[in-house]
Amino acid sequence: MIYLYENSCGYALFNKIDDKVELLKTYNFKSSEESVDSYKELLNNELPNNLKDFLILTLKNKNDVLCVRDDKLSSKITSECDIKSNFVIDDTFKEIRNGIEKYFTSDFLYRTLYLSHKLSMEKININSDKIDTMVIQSINLLLDLDKDINLHCMRIREWYGIHFPELSLLIDDNLLYLQLVLVIKRKNSFTKSDLLEIVDEDLACKIHNLSENSMGADITDLDIENIVLDSKSVIKSFEYRTQLSTYIKEKMAIIAPNLTNLMGDLIGARLIAKAGSLDTLAKFPSSTVQLLGAEKSLFQSLRNKTNTPKYGIIFDSSIVGYASTKNKGKVARSLASKISLCARIDSLGKDTSGKFGVIFKEQIYRRVKNLENRNVSKKKIEVKGKFIINADKKYDGSDDTKRIKKN
After folding, report:
1. In this structure, how many other beta carbons lie within 10 angstroms of the beta carbon of residue 99?
2. Which one of 23, 66, 67, 312 has the minimum C-beta count within 10 Å?
3. Cβ-based neighbour number of residue 185 at 10 Å
4. SUPFAM superfamilies in the record, alphabetically (predicted)?
């Protein structure tokens, strides 16, 4: 029997006679690139030309059976080289492997390391259509940006509130507040017409009247300058946040269209980021998806032996918000199961239309309506021998009479 042993330096044929293994012939790769190309073909279940020529040249007139470590390679050799080949795993290959270095060049270990690195790099393939890392980083950036914007807006409100405190009580929108700060600056140096580009005439009159009777203190020009600079930087953050949201929406439509149609782009991206990847989210059971984002509350409730939370990130969904407080837990459980299905379709399926997300969303809304209608079902309530069929209907006591005790 003849044994074929392929390695990083070439191919070797060994002849086994009476339990003795002897080297028959070797083929050395001419370069490291040749070894990489040959092993790529072997990994793709193809027969390299150099191996084919080597076997035909060596075993052309021999009737011995060739023993190979790979079943698919054995069938390729039999069909293409017309050589009898069998798939064999025995102790002979272990013996050959332990002493293979002495039959090749001194840089055997270096070539083995080079080949393993090259093949590992070839296996790392990135599909541009499924780069969920981009979504994970962008949604984390968006969340950090929201925290930064809220922090700066709070600081600016307190800072500018020293000069014009009434403006903060009148304006709740942070972006509008910052735009007004840039226009007003000093409360005694602006007119109503300056505000008409930002707000309507009624609100401009209110702001102007408040500025005339404001209880704020005077601040220096340096203070105003720094407040204005900070306000401009936060407004730029608002503009970049809008661009980042558009970017996430476009990426989510490519990566997870069904999950996007069901949960929205931002909540869907948060679920993917929390899971680590879309493939990981697809592997999660629905019970885990339901509590993603509520791990701290879950472990705290388990530690204190109290009621566990019913939802995590999915609580921000409009579907859960549409349900009443009593039914939020049931809706969250149903929604988590649909999220798992959408994630598996997006991760493993080839459909990019997102139609399943739309179908599942309609099913969840029907589920919510059924739960709400079940709570408002008819109830019988007994009142003095009478039944009120509708519990929401007020009781009419006009027919009731009071008995007055006669003296």
Report:
1. 10
2. 23
3. 20
4. Nop domain
